[in-house]
Amino acid sequence: MRRILITGATGTLGRALIPQLAHRYTVRLLSRKSRPGSGDSAIEWFKADLADGRYLEQATLDVDVIIHAASNPSGDTKKVDVHGTRKLLEAAAANGVEHFVYPSIVGIDRIPYKYYSYKQQAEELVQESGIPFTILRSTQFHALINFGLGHFNKLPGVLAVPFSFKFQSIDAKEVARILADHVIQGPAGRAPDAGGPEVLSLKTMARQWLEARGESKWLMPLPVPGKTGKCFRRGENTCPGAKAGSTTWRDWLELQYARFRRQNERS
């Protein structure tokens, strides 16, 4: 049976990839910490660290395909996303990996955001590695918007967000399905972008988020100056002509917060 290595296996996308692949392949999950066995013979845990490159050659041994979903946007991004990707590619090449799949982000070549510049550097490393590859850029996950709104939701009675920022968020499970299809079909180079079913302002998304949570707050505009803010207001992070997902933001919220609302109603 072919073996797929998934980095970032405990992240939002990594967790969504496992059920898409484990029924068809042996799936090796890369983690910085030791993990207990799952009891599923199709799933292997392997301890290795992208940041320092330890054990990557062993982790990629007998691997046919790598899905490199690991990223570190809030820490030492260059060490993990750039240098770590280089080390992983070197190990993959040494072990004859046949296909390197790299999930990336729509708009990283247009938005002057440091994290995005590192993602673009990683894309270039993949393209120059000599390993057959697929690069799939997707828009932001619903889960990321949910996390961001929770971060802003700290003040009593008010939620301040950049009203005119545009997002075309997508369900991570739908991105995982697309990536799994690319594993089956083989290397595609730079694949078509994947976006969610609708482009919404963050003001609209915040209003729907509060409704789903059963909260009543005053929405207040949060100004974000500079080039990066301008790009998000223009929707440079969206791809309206490439709507790949079908789960809307409201649909996702309904599933996410049904239990949350029931708890609020009982209290």
Write up what this structure looks like.
The chain has 267 residues and is α/β, with parallel strands linked by helices. It has a domain at 3-139 and 172-190: Rossmann fold (3-Layer(aba) Sandwich), CATH 3.40.50.720. The chain has 9 helices and 11 strands. It has helices at 12-21, 56-59, 77-94, 114-128, 142-152, 172-185, 202-213, 227-234, 249-266; strands at 3-7, 26-31, 43-47, 65-68, 99-105, 133-138, 158-161, 166-167, 189-190, 200-201, 218-221. The strands form 3 sheets. A 7-stranded parallel β-sheet has the order 3-2-1-4-5-6-9, sandwiched between helices. A two-stranded parallel sheet has the order 7-11. Helix 1 links the parallel strand 1 and strand 2. Helix 7 (202-213) packs parallel to helix 9. The longest helix has 18 residues, at 77-94. The radius of gyration is 19 Å and the shape is globular. The protein starts with a strand and ends with a helix. The model has no long low-confidence stretch (mean pLDDT 93).
Spell out the key features of this protein.
267 residues; alpha/beta; Rossmann fold; 7-stranded parallel sheet; two-stranded parallel sheet; 9 helices; 11 strands; 41% helix; 18% strand; globular
Structural class: alpha/beta
Relative helix content = 40-55%
Biggest sheet, strands in spatial order? 3-2-1-4-5-6-9
CATH second-level architecture of the domain at 3-139 and 172-190: 3-Layer(aba) Sandwich
- CATH homologous superfamily annotation of the domain at 3-139 and 172-190: NAD(P)-binding Rossmann-like Domain
CATH topology of the domain at 3-139 and 172-190: Rossmann fold
Number of strands: 11
Q: What is the radius of gyration computed over CA atoms, rounded to a whole number of angstroms?
A: 19 Å
